[in-house]
Amino acid sequence: MSLLQELGGQLRAASDELPTGLVTAAMERLRTATEILNWVREQSHQQMGVPQLGNATEHVERAAAALRAAQDAIAAYLAAAGLSGQPGAAPGQEWRAALKPEDAAPPADPDSEPEAEALGPWWQQRVAQLTGEPAPDKQGGKDGTDTAELLRRVAAGVRAGDRARLGRELHAVNASTGLGLSAVTSPVLHRLAGDLLGHEPRPEDVPRLRSAAEGRVKSLLPGTSPAILETLIDRICRVPVQQQQQKNRPPGHPADNAVTASVLTGVLLARLGRDAQTLNPDAPEPVRREDGAETGERRR
Q1: Residue-range domain boundaries for the chain
Q2: Which of 38, 81, 176, 290 is the 20 to 30 Å CA partner of 45?
């Protein structure tokens, strides 16, 4: 191995070890927390810690941008040195970090644990409103499903076009698990949209992505607002925040954002001809389509 190849290998290893995925996952969780607190603040007319979360989100967004810039600079250097064809970690792996299960916290002492506040079955009520599927008599939220597994179940229901199944899966979990869909879906959606489009999603891709998804989303979620899907697509395509704010869309309910994002994930998977198990973070890397390739659903 030449000195140049050894240098390239070291640079590639350094790029692969940058915690871009973890920082992106943390950024999406902070964004989700901010959205939830913003909704609570509007209902209660109190600050509820939103400014502090906003500052934290801004810091982590800058960190994620700096990590991506570092990886791009390394990739450009390797290309200039003629080493771009050497093997390395596949790009765009942030979605895997988002779907990795978090380390479980140690079990709490049941004698010292405070009694949980009873908030009522608001999650099930909101799911019923979005899907049109009534909540079952038995209260959900006790099946032990984590958010990543819930996303795969929802995607499977969407792929089958089964709204009743979709409703059952969403009704079966508690609000905490359901709201977590907002955080885990964001990097997944960005990656799937890139695979569908054949390139990184750009603001000019908004109409194309909308036409590929809105009909199917509306049929599965007849109670969702069109503004929710529009906001999600703007974020996927990295439309500047200033342009999004100029559209003066009302803030969506946190449950609406989470459910719509999970259904949109299933729709994009169907358009790519992939099943829900490709969302397993340990699954093999799917083959990415080239720009201009057919992006419709698998023909029957």
Answers
A1: 1-89, 94-101+121-300
A2: 176
Residue 69: predicted pLDDT: 76
- Indicate if the pLDDT at residue 292 is higher than 80: no
Q: Given this model, what pLDDT does residue 91 score? A: 54
Residue 175: its pLDDT value, please?
A: 85
DSSP string, the chain: --HHHHHHHHHHHHHHHS-HHHHHHHHHHHHHHHHHHHHHHHHHTS-TTHHHHHHHHHHHHHHHHHHHHHHHHHHHHHHHTT-TTS--PPS--HHHHHHSPPPPPPPPPTTTSPPPP---SHHHHHHHHHHSPPPPSS--S-S---HHHHHHHHHHHHHHT-HHHHHHHHHTS-HHHHHTHHHHHHHHHHHHHHHHHTS---GGGHHHHHHHHHHHHHHH-TTS-HHHHHHHHHHHTT--HHHHHHT-PPPPPHHHHHHHHHHHHHHHHHHHT--GGGGSTTSPPPPPPPTTS--SPPP-
Mean pLDDT value of segment 259-281? 91
Give residue 267's pLDDT: 96
